[in-house]
Amino acid sequence: METFAFLIDGFAVALQPHNLMWALIGSVLGTVIGILPGIGPALTIALLLPVTIALAPTSAFIMFAGVLYGAMYGGSTTSILLNTPGEAGSMMTALEGNRMARAGRGAAALATAAIGSFVAGTIATLLLTFAAPAIAELAFYFKPADYFALTVLAFTSVAVVMGTSRVRGFIALFIGLALGVVGIDTMAGQPRLTFGMMQLLKGIELTVVLVSLFAVGEMLYVASRYRKLPAKITPTKGLAWMTREDFARSWKPWLRGTAIGFPMGALPGGGSEIPTMLSYTLEKKLARHDEFGKGAIEGVAGPEAANNASAAGVLVPLLTLGLPTSATAAVLLAAFQNYGLQPGPFLFTSNPQLVWGLIASLYVGNLMLLVLNLPLVGLWVRLLLIPRPQLYAGILVFAMIGIWGVARSWMDLLIMAVVGLMGYVMRVYDFPIAPVLIGLILGPMAENYLRTALAAGQGNPIVLVSTPVSATLMVLAVLFLALPPLLRRLRANA
Amino acid sequence: MSNNGTPDLSEQGGGREAASHQAPRPFWIGLLVMAMGAIWLYGASSLPQGARYAAVGPGLFVTITGAGLVLLGGILVLQIWRGERFEPQDAEDAAANSPMDKRAFITALVAVFLPVVIMPPLGMPFTATVAFALVCRAFGSRHLLMDIAIGAVLGSLAWVLFTQLGLQLGRFFPPLGV
């Protein structure tokens, strides 16, 4: 029951007035960017990083947690009212949610999404509370070879699962890995791939690449294929809220969605797309009402819960093993590194205030978001009235400020432009973006583990699979290559 | 899914051959990936692959990434040759299958590349104003003066706010020394 004591300490941190304020700022910001097109949680956190450096890490992470959860609430709002899912995780919500909205049941759909997100987020946070310390305990015994195997597993799963083609997934991953080796080699102190340029010695920053790929790449892409359609918002005013029957039909999908989302989110490569898809398929199979495809409330409740639960799940490997499994997790890891912190088993003992404050703030943020979103949804939706030219121009300006503010280097701006162009090409030819970021941030870590492990084993590569953990993980990594045909079948059924 | 799914290495139907001949074949992407790999391999060639005590030197990982890119680029070229199809990703506000608006794209691209040259000498607020107006133009805005004004206000406000927050953004307008 040690965990309870830590959690109570965590609440003592999260409930301090200034931390509550940061949680509120994060939740509002998250909701806003979840609703606005062209900007998501990973990009927002990346842009906030240089500004938050003066802040205490605990406050910064509490704000980031608000952004992370808030973006999901905002994302479901646009899915339901506009049929424009801002991210992969709310695609399934749009299927039934938008039909409900068009049938005049938009308010009920929004309510089941918000309450479902709250229920799932709270249960998943509870699971995180108890699972994370246990896994961190196990990770104490991990050797460099085990960590290396873990990163390899993360690489193959991310490259295989995200996107439509294995080859393109691996290309994205290897571009990230390649960018990660630029700069001074930390172990031998030798400059690599800098071609004599001083500005490249410090390496290529994750935030620069992330902002370029997401903000600049997206802006260029939308500019080249801009669809000038006025936003058509389905009105929700004066419509029926959730009825007793809606509640009766929603609570089981909420729980099932949570049960699917949390473990899938915690797995490398799980992300939010697959659990929401699974939840949708499951609810469709279980449905007694012949309503699917016409606006079934189960089809909103389940995927929304799965989406939120998977976001909490993503935090498990990040906090306990230092292993990011999504773009947002990658930028959170970069944030930890900015503060000189390395997430992993030692973070729980060296920085309990931060870890437990963050976990406690997830409970607080969830409650705040429920209050912010249910009554105020009409207000949030007005954000969509911002004219698109000025919105995308503003996104580019903020991206530029964020990148210029990192080091005031023209080289960073050049990297922004080139990587932004790459982001454009990747969108046109359907390459997944997240593997680039995972490769970039995990690559140097993988290399360190590889070199430490090999040095300990006098260069014999057998050492990489010499422990039960490393051998198992390596086998899993190979198995992942065989997974895509299975997934394709799943997608066809959905 | 098998009758109209996305083709990959294992799944190449002869029936699509005819259609794929008309589709564009972006060989250049595969070649670009291979070229990037070649640069990394070249960079690795001047680095020690092994080290006396550590068994692995700073060059090995660079070699692996370079070789990986060359190999994957080659596979992609092969896939394209066999008729791999590429479908643009969906995005809000964008029609994935509409033809590319070259003029808008180039205007937006100028807004992205211009700051590399004008940010250091002319400062952040001025650069932000120019980039803002260019992107608005690319998205079809016809109110140039209005966009310049909004961009200038936005850039200046952001400069003041972020400088207050401790972000180093340089001088407001370097040519005047302020």
Q: Estimate the helix proportion of chain A, in percent.
A: over 70%
Total beta-strand segments of chain A: 2
For the largest interface in this structure, which chains are involved and how many residues does each contribute?
A-B, 82 and 91 residues
Order of helices and strands of chain B: HHHHHH
Instruction: Output the radius of gyration of chain B.
Output: 24 Å
Residue windows where pLDDT falls under 50 for at least 5 positions of chain A: none
> In angstroms, what separates the terminal alpha carbons of chain B?
63 Å
Strand content of chain A: under 5%
Shape of chain A: globular
Strand content of chain B: under 5%
Largest sheet of chain A: 2 strands, antiparallel
What sort of overall outline of chain B do the alpha carbons produce when their principal axes are compared?
flat
Structural class computed from helices and strand pairing of chain B: mainly alpha
Query: Biggest β-sheet of chain B, characterized?
Result: none
Characterization of this structure:
The complex is a heterodimer of chains A (494) and B (178). By secondary structure, chain A is mainly α. Chain A has 19 helices and two strands. Chain A has helices at 2-14, 17-35, 41-52, 57-82, 91-139, 144-161, 166-180, 206-224, 244-266, 273-286, 298-321, 327-338, 345-350, 352-381, 388-407, 410-428, 434-456, 468-480, 484-493; strands spanning 183-184, 191-192. Helix content of chain B is 58%, strand content 0%. Chain B has helices at 17-22, 27-45, 60-81, 102-122, 124-138, 144-164. In chain B, helix 2 packs antiparallel against helix 3 (60-81). The chains are: A mainly alpha (494), B mainly alpha (178). The interface between A and B is large, with 82 and 91 residues.
Jot down its keywords.
heterodimer; A: 494 residues; two-stranded antiparallel sheet; 19 helices; 74% helix; B: 178 residues; mainly alpha; 6 helices; flat; disordered N terminus
How are the SSEs placed, and which strands pair?
The complex is a heterodimer of chains A (494) and B (178).
Chain A: H1 2-14, H2 17-35, H3 41-52, H4 57-82, H5 91-139, H6 144-161, H7 166-180, E1 183-184, E2 191-192, H8 206-224, H9 244-266, H10 273-286, H11 298-321, H12 327-338, H13 345-350, H14 352-381, H15 388-407, H16 410-428, H17 434-456, H18 468-480, H19 484-493
Antiparallel strand pairs in A: 1-2
Helix pairs in contact in A: 1-14, 2-4, 2-14, 3-4, 3-8, 3-12, 3-15, 4-5, 4-11, 4-12, 4-14, 5-9, 5-11, 5-14, 6-7, 6-17, 6-18, 7-17, 8-15, 8-16, 9-10, 9-11, 10-11, 12-17, 15-16
Chain B: H1 17-22, H2 27-45, H3 60-81, H4 102-122, H5 124-138, H6 144-164
Helix pairs in contact in B: 2-3, 4-5, 5-6
